[in-house]
Amino acid sequence: MGVRFDITNAIGIVTIDRQAKLNALDLATFKEIEEVVQRTNNDPGIRGLVFAAAPGKAFSAGADIRDLAGLTPGEASERATYRRGVFQKLMTADVPSIAAVDGFAMGGGVELALACTFRIASQRSVFSFPEIKLGLLPGAGATQRLPRLVGMSAALEMMITARELAADEALRVGLIDRIAENPIEAAKDFAAKWLPFSRGAIRGIMAAAHQSELPILEGLYKEGEELGLLSTSPDGIEGVSAFLERRPAFFNKSS
Questions:
Q1: Does residue 102 contact residue 78 with C-beta atoms inside 8 Å?
Q2: Taking CA atoms, which of 122, 140, 160, 212 is between 20 and 30 Å from 148?
Q3: What pLDDT sits at residue 223?
Q4: Distance between CA atoms of 178 and 122, rounded to whole angstroms?
Q5: Among 149, 105, 150, which Cα is nearest to 129's?
Q6: Active-site residue 131, yes or no?
Q7: Taking the domains of the chain in order of start, what are their residue ranges?
Q8: Residues 32, 34, 35, 131: which is the catalytic one?
Q9: Are 21 and 53 in contact (CB under 8 A)?
Q10: What sign results for the dihedral spanned by CA atoms 29, 31, 34, 40?
């Protein structure tokens, strides 16, 4: 297995462990990530996910190129569609996720980080998209997610020149959210900040925020829809009642 999954204090720690392959993401690894997301959505006791890599010089070298060898155009397209689908499931999971990057992240490794809600990296981390050197393009969501995060010019420069970004510059352009000496521990500390709050409210906020990429009227409709559901949920009723009664709210954190 290329993925280890452990739960610590309600946070799922997902460790990519294919050190001999620089944690390259093969088809089996994508399937394991998909299973982790499904398990998380079905387990109200899991409140967040942290994606990390086994100790070494790489967070992930990206897609395992051996998976592409010998495929027909139709098979290659089908494989890419599946990979994009897995990362979309991660992006729209019921709980927030954090990529804890320590080492170099290339291609699909960066796309994994882009699919997470937040990104924390060590000072030694480096980010790049080398697909152009193979006559290819990033095929697991980067052409859409990267420009939305760092802007069109910075995104295109990374993808069409294979330019490497060190951690400081990645932070400056918005590719990562912070730099930490120990990204995994920093991610756990960050995740602890949302643990006191309603899982359902967090899911609703993220679901509505993801619609911000749609025309504004569609996004506003989704926002209203989610607010309506939360307002009549047990946590929503408890939150309003606690405010009116001037007492702490006691949320069902697993709902």
A1: no
A2: 122
A3: 59
A4: 9
A5: 105
A6: yes
A7: 3-191, 199-244
A8: 131
A9: no
A10: negative
The whole-angstrom separation of Cα 68 and Cα 133 is 15
Q: Which of 111, 218, 223, 238 is catalytic?
A: 111
117 Cα distance to chain centroid: 5
| Helix segments in the chain, DSSP class H | 27-42, 73-91, 108-115, 142-150, 152-161, 167-173, 183-191, 199-210, 216-231, 234-244
pLDDT along the chain (255 residues), means of 10: 92 93 91 97 96 93 76 75 91 97 95 97 96 83 90 94 96 97 97 95 92 69 68 76 82 67
CB 23 within 8 A of CB 53: yes
pLDDT at res. 243: 72
| Cα–Cα dist 171/177, whole Å | 6
Fold annotation for 3-191: 2-enoyl-CoA Hydratase; Chain A, domain 1 (3.90.226)
Chain Cα centroid distance, residue 42? 18
pLDDT of residue 158: 95
Place of tokens 């050190």: 19
